[in-house]
Write a structure and sequence with these properties.
8 strands; alpha+beta
Amino acid sequence: MAMSTEGLAPGLQLPGGRTRLERLTVDHTQGLLEAVDDPLLWRYMPAATPTTVDQMRAVTDAALKDPAAYPFAVIDLSSGRPCGSTRYLEINPANRALEIGWTWYSRRVQRTSINTECKLLLLGYAFETMGCIRVQLRCDLRNLASQAAIERIGGVKEGVFRRHRIMWDGYIRDSVFYSIIDSEWPAVKQRLQDKLAMHAPAR
């Protein structure tokens, strides 16, 4: 089975119960800027915290110009506004693999079900629609919260790339790499669905 990228069209939307992932466009710029409600949200990101429309527009433009990426705006259905962003990165059809990264959320939606739902949507589309056999995730070695979150959903730690990337502020970071492979996806999917069920309102 070959990996298909035909579904990564400009109009792609991945709907959930609390959120919707939709292809990032320049129209999301203002909403994303407003979602940056704490400068620490971008502490481990590859770019400085955007504080103006022009700076956020530069981030958006760079994402849209990356030929190996497919960026999403994360829409909070309760408000209809962006509450963060995430991307498919390193899309590699020849090896049926990609990475999920560049993920950040507004402080107001953290510790909600939004991240869990987004991971379910992204992983489900990658494995079940695109035909991936491997999805990679990575984070800064200092980012203990992200490491714990990846491990909670079933990501397998593969190791640390030492002095892997020079950050925008000159810091040379070590990166922790995780992966989920196709044979692990059913168990990961069930784990994510169980986590979402815990957040579901009582009837």
